[in-house]
Design goal:
It is a single chain. The protein has 6 helices and no strands. By secondary structure, it is mostly helical. The protein has a single domain, classed as Up-down Bundle (Ferritin), CATH 1.20.1260. Helix 4 packs antiparallel against helix 5. It is globular and about 55 Å long. It starts with a helix and ends in a 7-residue tail after the last helix. The model has no long low-confidence stretch (mean pLDDT 93). The chain binds fe (ii) ion (FE2) (2 copies). One fe (ii) ion (FE2) binds next to helix 1 and helix 2.
């Protein structure tokens, strides 16, 4: 397992496992988050984001199965606890802090799926590139949602923010081979 293709596959499996567990944390965090907000429209919007994280998880589980790999149980358990804790904290953390935390985490998710797409390219799993980039795009949508929410708060524009991601169109325009 020393050629670039095998090494990329090994890294990709690890990343898919991490992302699979991360999506579980996100699902539980947003489950608590949507229940913590009062505005009905906002509740629906965050619930939709929660459900999209679950779709990501299903897609990742399928990929792992296709290469004969599986989620890592210890990681799954840990991230479930993280998600449930964040979800609980949303109920006592007010409105602004959960919006900030979600936006910051989502910006990292965009990059994670871009890296996964690049690894899929190198590993010869070309059929996964588009779905992985689609997940990066959905995470981009999540990031902008929470960014706008954060900025809509009277304090939002005075507080430090996480870096602005590149435009959404760049996710596909770059192409996985150019992501390195
Ligand atoms: Fe996700
Ligand atoms: Fe997300």
């Amino acid at each position: 397992m020393n050629n670039p293709r095998d090494l990329a596959l090994k890294r990709l499996i690890r990343l898919l496992q991490d992302a699979h567990a991360g999506e579980l944390a996100a699902f539980h965090a947003y489950d608590g988050h949507f229940k913590s907000v009062r505005d009905p429209k906002e509740r629906q919007e965050i619930k939709k984001i929660r459900d999209e994280e679950w779709e990501h998880r299903e897609c990742l589980a399928r990929f792992l199965g296709e290469i004969g790999a599986a989620p890592r149980p210890a990681r799954e358990f840990k991230m479930k606890c993280v998600g449930l804790t964040i979800g609980f904290l949303c109920r006592i953390g007010g409105w602004l802090i959960p919006m900030y935390g979600a936006g910051k985490l989502e910006s990292g998710n965009i990059v994670e799926y871009e890296i996964a797409a690049r690894l899929a390219f190198t590993a010869g799993r070309h059929e996964w590139i588009s779905p992985l980039l689609h997940m990066a795009e959905v995470e981009w949508d999540h990031e902008i949602y929470f960014r706008q929410k954060f900025l809509s708060h009277p304090l939002g524009r005075y507080l430090p923010m996480w870096p602005l991601p590149p435009p959404r169109t760049e996710i596909r325009a770059k192409g996985p081979q150019a992501l390195s």
